[in-house]
Amino acid sequence: MARQAHDREDLLAEATALVRRAELITDDAAGPVVFGLRANGCASVYLSPDWALHFNSTGAVRRGYLDGRLITAERGELFALERRRTTDEVELRRRPLLPAESAQLLADAHERLQALRTALATGAARIRRAVWEQGDPVHEIAAWIERLPSPLEIAAEPHAR
What we know:
Blueprint: H1 11-14, E1 20-26, E2 33-37, E3 43-48, E4 51-55, E5 61-66, E6 69-74, E7 77-85, E8 90-96, H2 99-122, E9 125-131, H3 137-147
Antiparallel strand pairs: 1-2, 1-9, 2-3, 3-4, 4-5, 5-6, 6-7, 7-8
Helix pairs in contact: 2-3
């Protein structure tokens, strides 16, 4: 793990595990949104440098980065991983999220994703750049969001499967 955290310079270029990816500009977001799909159907959504969620192939949340906290799923529960830096190393301290914290995180994520779907449907979100071999990224991203379970579910593990 790097000693210093930095914003990504070009997530669209760097996220090569996401074989289909698009950078979107929305009327109400401060910066670009990046959405990507792995070959196995797992998806990642980066709404800001401080807000990213990663989903498994069934649309369950497997891990994320939310407001400075690393989040991971294990056995259907969410855990927060807090970075503690010392002069010699970086360690991760793990704690389970309380049920109310998990429910709020999932509700907020669902709301943000539905707002993105609405922005795509109304033209308030536009593709800036994309690595998308075939098909329409706007339609496919909106359809992916539409297929998400409601309420969002927690994956059994943090791995991309």
